Each structure stands twice: as structure tokens, then as C-alpha cells.
Amino acid sequence: RTRNLTLLTAWFGPYCEAVRPIAGALEAVRQLRAQGLPLALVSNVALPGALYARLLEREGFFPHFERLFFS
Fold first, then answer.
1. Model's pTM, two decimal places?
2. Residues ≥6 apart with Cβ < 8 Å to 51
3. For the purposes of burial, counting CB atoms within 10 Å of the CB of 30, is it exposed (0-12), middle (13-18) or buried (19 or more)?
4. Is-contact 64 30, C-beta < 8 A?
5. To which H or E segment does residue 70 belong?
6. Which of 27, 29, 44, 62 makes an SS bond possible with 56, Cβ 3.0 to 4.6 Å?
7. Is residue 41 a contact partner of residue 67, using CB atoms and an 8 Å limit?
């Protein structure tokens, strides 16, 4: 399993580097949290959620979500 994740991480890397949030997305999430709303992210993704969680962390979204669900 660890080997598979290592291979997927290597493959995902170039794609991940090209992904950027749309303008205003992080500010919108921050404003929702500032209003006291609990936020969760639900996403149907092709690869392990851990890869996408790293992307959310890099872009500053991760700490704003109480829960992340990937399928």
C-alpha cells in the first residue's frame, strides 16, 4: 500500500503543481468560517484523498474544514 501511494504521489505531482484555486475561493471559505459555520468537503476523486488533502494544505484551505470525505 505504501509503495502504491509513493507511485501515485510521483504521478500526481505534476498535475498537483498545475492546480490552483479560482480567484476568491479561499477568501470565501475564510468568511464562512468567520461566521461560525462548520465546513466539510465532500469529493468524488480518482486518487487517494491524502493526495488532495496535501493540495488543500498547500493552498491554505485545509484548516478551514472540520471534515474531509473522499470517495
1. 0.78
2. 8, 9, 12, 16
3. middle
4. yes
5. strand 67-70
6. 62
7. yes
